[in-house]
Amino acid sequence: MTGLFDSAQVGAIHLNNRIIMAPLTRSRAAQDGIPTDMHIEYYKQRADNGLIVTEGTFFEDINRAFLGQPGIATAEQQEGWRKVAQAVHEQGSEIVMQIMHGGRLTLPSINGFDQGESSSAIAPGVTLHGAEGREEVPTPVALDSEGIERVVRKFTEGARRAIDAGMDGVEVHGANGYLLHQFLAPSSNHRTDEYGGSPENRARLAIEVIRSIADEIGADRLGLRISPMHNIQGCMEEDENDVRATYKALLDGIADLNIAYLSVLYQDAESDLVAFLRESFGGFMILNTGFGTETELDEARHIVEDDLADGVAVGREIIANPDLSYRWKNDLPLNPIDSDTFYTPGPHGYIDYPMAGQE
Ligand SMILES: Cc1cc2nc3c(=O)[nH]c(=O)nc-3n(C[C@H](O)[C@H](O)[C@H](O)COP(=O)(O)O)c2cc1C
């Protein structure tokens, strides 16, 4: 039986255990998007866990999705991340960068453009937190074929910069209603060209992005995150047959590459859908059951020990407990989670959670 604290080698990426720090947006960067000394400290503190996945990072200004989001679009941002990667490596752990295109989920005060870009010119019908408080998200521009080519190229350049910064790998964000999910989900993709309509067509952009990045950095350093039927931020996937066909098309379209891992966010770990995705992928699968309740030790153990997945992504408990793996392994009490400081600027709630024994 595989245990939660067993190490693993996934492609070129090494995990000290099966507890993976989930990608977590923390909004602590300045407008320049350069990781700061605070970012170095934050990730270094959490290097005790099996693997770190960074917060979703933008690779071009237009795809910024949050205020305070760090980037991997410039040499200066790359240099900031180099220090983060180095600090994590000095603790004996590895770190993967999640790179993302927010698509339509942005505001002029976040990305500096009047509109975001998406599969179709359909507003998500949600508000986002901008410079002046919550604002309605504008209708995006539908990407044309040159725009799609640019997105694939820029995604790939961002991945290259991440590896050049010393990251051990790159995770493509295909989840949670951001650009690639906006192409996958029928509610947000009304295109009539080869990127819309059938499951195969809606999966095409994600496949092109993955294939292009694998070609650039090597598939053994590449992961993909998906969240089928998450039904969040206006990306609705309500027909399970269509969902299976769409994600099967995506996984079939990258099967020959053998990417390092697939990270799935789905609420029910024991569902047929999770089993279907795992079988369709065939490689190392990381699971997270989403925002309903925080991932706790019992659930994490159940997922790995009962072979529902190969690893578990843990979010909020690792925000509050930098040394979560150590605490879980030794049955130690946990710090309470302060959700009020998830996205606030400054060190409080970011780098001042105590380690075990220092409370
Ligand atoms: C503050 C916060 C920020 C998040 N940012 C991201 C992100 O940048 N990329 C991503 O794929 N998921 C993001 N998520 C989702 C988490 O990776 C994870 O799926 C979620 O927290 C549920 O896991 P948990 O119950 O262990 O916290 C975020 C969640 C939270 C709470």
TrEMBL record:
One of its GO terms (cellular component) is cytosol. It comes from the Bacteria. InterPro entries: Aldolase_TIM (IPR013785), OxRdtase_FMN_N (IPR001155), Oye-like (IPR045247). Residues 4-335 form the NADH:flavin oxidoreductase/NADH oxidase N-terminal domain. Gene3D superfamilies: Aldolase class I. GO terms for molecular function: FMN binding; oxidoreductase activity. Pfam families: Oxidored_FMN (PF00724). CDD domains: OYE_like_FMN. This is Alkene reductase. It comes from Rothia terrae. The lineage of its organism: Bacteria, Bacillati, Actinomycetota, Actinomycetes, Micrococcales.
